[in-house]
User: Fold this.
Amino acid sequence: MALGMSIDPADDDLHGQEQDLDRQGPIWRQYHELAELAGSLAHEIKNPLSVIHMNADLLSEELDESQWPGKRRAISKVEMIKQQCHRMENLLRDFLKFARMQDMELTLGSLNEQIISVLNLFQPQADRQGVRLERFLDSDLPNIRLNGGSLQAALINLVKNSLEAMPDGGELLIRTYVIPSGVAIDMIDSGCGMDETTAMRMFEPFYSTKTEGSGLGLPTTRKILEAHGGRISVQSEVGRGTKFVLEFPTPMRIA
Assistant:
């Protein structure tokens, strides 16, 4: 499936300084210090937010039992507080994952097995939507060094996005194969696709075209790939679909 454009977040014109971080030790250390600080700040916000949410729940229960004439309006406002607390809790949860996505423990494992596990998870939803999950997994694919939980989280996010782009049915094709630098996955859907601006910005933290969501799903996916020594790129065209390419080094190529 040939699509209209290809975006690689590691390209010079998109993230000119990022790929040089490994050669700029002080900048890299500063980035990690800021990430840790942001994570600590998010954690400090999370605690009082949980207290607000808990007390809103208690207040809602008391209002339900009250005979106060204005309780319906009060309950409506309390529910609004609870909804916003829930939204902020989800945002903080995603942000903490993003901020703490640094070095992770990698062990030798099968990329195909990770993919099969994720596809099995989404098969019922795909069946309900009329989406065909096609898999072409290289049986001779070399093992890679991976963190199963994190890698599955990245794959889950990508498959979830693809299914959301095909509410009325379609096809999601997953293919693994060997490349000169290691191994790769193609994830190709026949969904609605995206414009160039969205494709260029989709890996930016907090950027989202959805009314709900933190805008951290794809940036976290990218960080997970980079923590595996890999990379992710996207090709997309409005009305034709989207193709993600994930590349991983084989063990002998990991520094």
Remarks:
- Residues 12-24 have pLDDT under 50 and may be disordered.
- Residues 5-15+106-253 form a domain with the Heat Shock Protein 90 fold (CATH 3.30.565.10).
